[in-house]
Automatic annotation (TrEMBL), chain B:
Annotated stretches, region: Disordered: 1-42, 55-92
PANTHER family found in the cross-reference section: GEO08327P1, TRAFFICKING PROTEIN PARTICLE COMPLEX SUBUNIT 6B
Top-level taxon of origin: Eukaryota
Gene3D superfamilies hit by this protein: Trafficking protein particle complex subunit 3
GO biological process: endoplasmic reticulum to Golgi vesicle-mediated transport
Pfam families for this protein: TRAPP
A single Gene Ontology CC term: cis-Golgi network
Protein name: Trafficking protein particle complex subunit 6B
UniProt family annotation: Belongs to the TRAPP small subunits family. BET3 subfamily.
Low complexity bias: start-end ranges: 9-25
Database matches in InterPro entries: NO_sig/Golgi_transp_ligand-bd (IPR024096), TRAPP_component (IPR007194), TRAPPC6/Trs33 (IPR037992)
Amino acid sequence: MSKKYDKLGNDVFNKVEKINSELFTLTYGALVTQLIKDYEDIEQVNIKLEQMGYNIGIRLIEEFLAKSGIGRCSDFIETAEVIAKVGFKMFLGVNAHVGDWDANRKEFHLTIEDNPLIDFVELPDQYKHKLYYSNILCGVMRGALEMVQMKVKCTFVKCTLSDDSTSEIKVVLEEVLSDMIPVGYD
Amino acid sequence: MSDPLSNPTINTTNVGGQTTTQNTIGGVGGGKSNSVGTPYTTPLQTSAYTTANSLSATNSPIPNHHMINSNSSNNLSGMVTPGGAGLQQQQSSITSSTNNLGLLGQQQPQQQQQQTLLQPFTTQSRLISASCFEFFYIEMIDCIMKSSSDKQQAHKKLDKLGFKVGHRLVERLSLDTALFPELLDAVKFICKVFWTTVFKKTIDGLKTNHKGGVFVLTDSKFQWLQHLSFDSSASNKDCSEYVQFTAGLIKGAMSNFGFKCIVTFDIQQVSTCVFTIKIES
């Protein structure tokens, strides 16, 4: 399954329109700097980044499904592989890996090797382990998965900006949402 | 003439990088990056710490550089007419790509070739999906509009953000370029290399008055307005906030070249944007 999605990820990334990643990195950096100035509390910055990511994710999933041609995933394990091999590859051009499943198969860790958001970035010591610089990625994943009826919770457990060796996001499946009959049709 | 203006800018960048969270161009930052291209990128990053004179082609650390005796006029000429200089530059780019291929493995050659073709005159760099950036851009504009007390303050913020990004981005893009002897060369760089990097096309029209202090740049299909739809019932029909950031980009880029300027813009019809650059002096 992993190889199949690896190939699909590469194919889709080669097809999509691409742009210089430095523009993205620098723009994101300028925005984070602005948010830190606007909000006194670093925790508020994290929340704001996650909220922005959520709003991006609910739109991004449409693009993802249209371009990748992926249908419904059979289970959460397949969903995780699709996110790592196709989703991250398609949009960011990076490889991500899935690991550390729990016994119930409802929790996994996503390792991002080469996060383009943190090129050129240094964190001063007072922000390490407090500011989750790439927290927008957690919001994107939550928003996107909610649009395909999976309610998840994403948090950064490791970040290379805080002197860890890799960036890791913990993803916990909280519930599978059921369809609601539209108002007036029941 | 431009040297005294350029040096303080570079020093400011270095100092700023040590006091707050922001993007820092330099060897230290590169050391933290997990980029696969680090062995290739690091020497270029290091050169950013040197004085403006050292940023010329003669001192470039790229061993296969073919521009040792070129000046910016030849460089720009090579862009307009793909002659020998342009071809040589492409050769250099392809050679650089080849150096990277060993690190990236077999799956990447096609991608690298695309990268070379997309940006034949700029430093090799990573690519991401354009839609990814556009989703982010829309959300960023929305966030800043909501968090500001009024529209004017929002536009000031966007202009300031754009200035920061433009200032740094153009530093990356002009690593391989000799210093511009004239103002017109700097504006041409914005119209060609900078615009291609950000919008994947060159500016459609460039006009100037005879004194040379005012430039009018016309983009007939502005990329960041392409996907906006028109809602006739909306109270706010003004989409200038989506363009204000770009005005800041231009101002920041020109500032890094040593020219302080005022950039205004006008949205003329669907997707046509006109940017006016007025040099302060």
